[in-house]
Amino acid sequence: MNKTLILTVEDDRPVRNLIVTTLKTHDYKYLTAENGNEAVMEAASHNPDIILLDLGLPDMDGIEVIKRIRTWSNMPIIVISARSEESDKIEALDAGADDYLTKPFSVEELLARLRVTERRLKLMRSGTEAGAPIFINGDLKIDYAAGCAYLKGEELHLTPIEYKLLCILSHNVGKVLTHTYITQQIWGSSWEKDIASLRVFMATLRKKLETDPGSAQYIQTHIGIGYRMLRVD
Fold first, then answer.
1. What are the residue boundaries of the OmpR/PhoB-type domain, all occurrences included (predicted)?
2. Strand partners, 141
3. Count of the separate structural domains present in the chain
4. Residues 6 or more apart from 196 whose CB is under 8 A from it?
5. Residue that terminates a domain, selected from 108, 126, 144
6. What is the domain range of residue 171?
7. Least C-beta-crowded within 10 Å: which of 20, 67, 183, 197?
8. How far apart are CA 8 and CA 11, in angstroms?
């Protein structure tokens, strides 16, 4: 039995049944909730490893559920919603969601998102993320204490902002970070000019990291939303 406990928050019975059947088939432990208040109570009582959250709940918006849980927990939250506008995705991610899956979705994609989140959980629990002095991801190594980064053993010559960008992404490996979140971390604001500057700095950072310009090896762009550092096996 997979030890990962997943809380599914979904008021639509057919969708909930599909998710539960998928989790059963792949040996996940699971809990279910049909509304926001129940979701918050289940999360507080059972401390699940991952939450799958619909936004259109009968008693409160899923965004409010995210905000409430984020006041006391960083447990990964994957939104599963029919809302497909970029603004909806950005709002959910800015509220604290870790990922966003749009309905209708395939079982294979859901399982892939779960695997990515499980890898991130494993890293967090083993202390190889923000709390560790050394971060290693494939051929990339970051020595936080020394303030240096290396690719295939060769030191990367990064500007201060490029290095800060790299650290922010590495501390959140596997998680989509919005433009707003990143610019606030770097410049303390999210003006349009800061987002434009972010794109420039991200492009120069990727040139130094990616050996194949046409393939995202370390940094994945989510158009109109933000960026994610990929975990390289």
1. 132-231
2. 136, 150
3. 2
4. none
5. 126
6. 134-229
7. 67
8. 10
Predicted confidence (pLDDT) at residue 106 exceeds the cutoff of 80: yes
Residue 32: CATH number of its domain: 3.40.50.2300
Residue 131 has pLDDT above 80, yes or no: no
Select from 70, 96, 126 the last residue of a domain: 126
Sign of the C-alpha dihedral, residues 141, 142, 145, 146? Answer: positive
Beta-carbon neighbour count of residue 142 at 10 Å? 23
User: Residue 213: exposed, middle, or buried by beta-carbon count in 10 A (0-12, 13-18, 19+)?
Assistant: exposed
- DSSP three-state, residue 3: coil
In the Cβ-directed half-sphere of 128, how many Cα atoms lie within 13 Å? 12
User: What single-letter amino acid sits at 124?
Assistant: M
- Tokens matching residue 132: 């560790």
DSSP H helices in the chain? 13-25, 36-46, 62-70, 86-95, 107-126, 160-171, 179-187, 192-209
Nearest Cα residue to 110 out of 95, 98, 100, 120: 100
Of 65-74, 132-141, 212-221, which gets the smallest average pLDDT? 212-221
Dist. CA 110–CA 23, nearest whole Å: 10
